[in-house]
Amino acid sequence: MTSKSLTPSANRRTELLAGVSTFLATMYIIVVNPAILSQAGLPFNGVLTATILLSFFCSLMMGLYAKNPIVVAPGMGLNAFFTFTAVKGMGLSPGVALGAVFWAGILFLVLSVLNVRAAIVQAIPKPIRYAVSAGIGLFITLIGFENARFIVASPATLVSMAPLHDPIMITFMLGLLLTAILVVRQVPGGIIIGIVLTTLAAIPIGRWWGDASAVNMGLKTLVNFQGVLAAPDFSLIGTLDLVNSFKWSLWPVIFAFAFTDLFDSLSTFVGVAEAGGLHDEAGEPRNLKQSLMTDAVATTLAGLLGTSPGTAYIESAVGIAQGGRTGLTAIVAGSLFLPFLFLSPLLSVIPAIATAPALVLVGAFMMQPVTKIRWEQLDDAIPAFLALVLIPFSYSITHGIIWGFLAWTVIKLAVGKPDEVPAGLWVVDGFCLLSLVNG
Asked: What angle (nearest 5°) sits at the alpha carbon of residue 56, between those of residues 351 and 265?
């Protein structure tokens, strides 16, 4: 039965159920985003509040303005870039990094208003785009393994696996397998269920090995339970540093935020359009300009609220598979974030090993684009491979992107294919070289 044969009330019921399904598929970000950004020195509860406000307002905008069934929330990969590249890698203060997010949103807005997205997309070779997406997935997976103490530093081999008898490792492995089974079986909210069950499994560790050991291992036990309800923490709103983040030396960071967000958004809009048949007369994703404008607003607002850039979520395809076709799906999903504003004490109990399985699995979800790379075509494959592996190996999304772009240009010129180096890529290469010189 097609949606055209449904009564208006049946249509609304379908959209409501699709909105609930989309929320269950994306609500893990409520916990995972604060868990990542708190490692950059931002307060967990403050990031949680910012995450929820951003997800609510921008999903609402996506539903009302762009009229698409797509949730907007702080992006995975973008939060990793914020924490591990901008703050920990480059030594930026959290305020300056938030300022860079804001200016990236302004840049994104300008590009969207001027409707130059086609030129930008054409400037970046598709194999590099596919490789960057997968490379960010590997980076997120590495962070998940590190947070779980599954992968640890080793003087002899650089990194190694933790001993099997480590209670954190055992709990993480159980949580990862359980969460993977829930996801594979397509259980609604499988990731968040896995987070909850892993948290429950972690509680006895402090009892069995002693509270001091639990603290040393980074665990939170029942001792840390401080209640269920509390007022939202608005302390991060307006803490961005607009002046120091606008320096010339930080423009590579701003561009990295803006372009990563843009490519992520475009990939999501194309993917969900294919999944739900949401195309316009020209065959492009429906209301693409309005959707990109919403995404740009999400990035700008993220800097003001105190979180990493917002972006459209590919998990929105879950709701689309349930029949969601209109903006009502996004409105319902976004509204379901709001009650969690008052649950920060309960959510802050969740330890790093409980969110680590979600990070590992998100990495798996992001690997799919590598199947589109022509690996037998070496002048395509080698630059893409460099971008793919250097993101996790260098612990820097920026360096992976830079070397992927530069390798593409040099190799294509060397093999006599200058026509495969878009004019816009020369401009991007210039910014890449400036970034390397300044770095």
From this structure: 90
146 with 80: CB under 8 angstroms?
A: no
Of 116, 72, 66, 121, give the one whose Cα is nearest residue 286.
66
Give the number of other CB atoms < 10 A from CB of residue 433: 13
In this structure, what DSSP letter does residue 162 have? P
Q: Which of 146, 147, 191 is nearest to 26 (CA)?
A: 191
The phi-psi region of residue 210 (left if phi > 0; otherwise alpha if psi is between -120 and 50; otherwise beta) is left
Enter the pTM of the model. Answer: 0.74
Tell me the C-alpha distance between 60 and 45, whole Å.
Answer: 23
The alpha carbon torsion through 136, 139, 144, 150 (nearest 10 deg) reads 150
CA distance 20 to 23: 5
Residue 170 token pair: 């055992």
How far, in Å, CA of 241 to CA of 100, rounded?
Answer: 8
Q: At CA 381, angle to CA 380 and CA 382, rounded to 5?
A: 100
- Sign for the CA dihedral angle at 125, 257, 32, 70 comes to negative
Pairwise CA distance, residues 392 & 373, whole Å: 19
117-153 pLDDT, tens digit per residue, is 666 666 778 898 888 878 878 887 888 888 788 888 8
